[in-house]
Amino acid sequence: MKVGEASPSSNKMRLELFEYIKDNGIVFGPVRLYSNVESNYYYDLRRVSLNPYGLNLIVGPLLEEVKKFDAKSVGGLANAAIPLSTALIMKDSNFGEYKNALHSFFVREERKDHGLMKKIEGMIIDPVVIIDDVLTSGRSIKKAVDAVMEHGYHVAGVVCVLDREETGVTNELKKFGVKYTSLFKHSDFKPFIDQKLNEMARH
Hints:
This protein is of the alpha/beta class and 203 residues long. It contains 7 helices and 8 strands, in the order αββααβαβββαβαβα. Helices cover 40% and strands 24% of the residues. A 6-stranded mixed β-sheet has the order 5-4-3-6-7-8, with helices on both faces. Strands 1-2 form a two-stranded antiparallel sheet. A hairpin with a 5-residue loop joins β1 and β2 (38-43). α1 (8-24) crosses α3 and α3 crosses α4. The two termini are 30 Å apart. The model is unreliable at 1-5 (pLDDT under 50).
């Protein structure tokens, strides 16, 4: 498993996160993905990012990737980006000690119809990194990219926890030249998934 130019402690956390996702973040059974692709397994990373232990494993390696884009703010489409961006700004600020740390925001699916009628909540400072848990087609991520750019900000890149490396669908980020990276790829988990599916087929 490639872990990039990560620190030894981050390497250890990535390996722990890898095992944690295997144990808790993959659901087997027929499912239709957001991209309308039919699959017999599903990466349910909300079961990881909404768990305190899982989120703690994510935040260190994710912050290292975000920093590679020299980001000043992080966020993405609600709801996946909210726990991730919150954890990132807490980690980066040492729980509020550093005032010049990352800022966070989230993008609503629809603009509010009352109050300040915002589509983006929070604070954005250039450059921006969009974050998400799973990249399949990139359509939902592209919504966040477009919303931020429409407000006049620069999106330096996208960082995801996992790239599903889905075949048969158009990768919207590649199509529009958006730089992106991920902590893991589907190919990292494929031997485990194939083994599980073979075991299920025999029973």
